[in-house]
Amino acid sequence: MIKLKRTDSNNSDFIALVNYLDEDLAKRDGEDHNFYAQYNKIDSIGHVVVTYENSQPIACGAIKKYAPKIMEVKRMYTLPEQRGKGIGAKVLQELENWATELHYEKCILETGKKQPEAIKLYIKCGYQLIPNYGQYASVENSVCFEKKLIND
């Protein structure tokens, strides 16, 4: 049974999943990894989702305030053996729901061109390509997306 849990970045299962994510990104990013790593610290992230299957952590994601009314999606990861089952989309939907509950109007995110499965997920979930923002503005291997959220 799949269960999504809202927590924060002190959650030990989130920390363990992020360690797997960082290992994967270090291989994919190569020489660029240190640049990206400096923007992916997990201390004091207050909005984290960890997904469990039969009490085992299998996926995670987080949001953090980027600007007034804008949340940035961070640290999305699904264990390799769990991919292709729609779990990443469920994590993303839960993060978007949480952002909406907190009265944010949009989510933005950055991912790497060397992560085609992530790009595919974000497009499938309704994210639109935007110009690279902030520290990613001139980074050739980055792609940035946004999704407007509906607030009631």
Please explain how this structure is put together.
The chain is built from 4 helices and 7 strands, in the order E-H-H-E-E-E-H-E-H-E-E. The chain is α+β, with helices and mostly antiparallel strands and 152 residues long. The longest helix is centred in the first third of the chain and has 18 residues, at 12-29. The mean pLDDT is 92.
Characteristic key phrases:
4 helices; alpha+beta; Aminopeptidase; 7 strands; 7-stranded mixed sheet; 152 residues
Q: TL;DR of this structure?
A:
With 152 residues, the chain is of the alpha+beta class.
* Spatial strand order of the main sheet: 1-2-3-4-5-7-6
Average residue pLDDT: 92
Low-confidence stretches: none
Assembly context of the chains = single chain
Give the C-level CATH assignment.
Alpha Beta
Residues in β-strands, percent? 25-35%
Q: What's the number of domains?
A: 1
- Sheet with most strands: 7 strands, mixed
N-to-C SSE string, H for helix and E for strand: EHHEEEHEHEE
Count of DSSP-assigned helices? 4
Query: Based on the structure given, which CATH architecture is correct?
Result: 3-Layer(aba) Sandwich
User: Structural class, judged by helices and strands?
Assistant: alpha+beta
Shape: globular
Q: What's the CATH H-level superfamily name?
A: Gcn5-related N-acetyltransferase (GNAT)
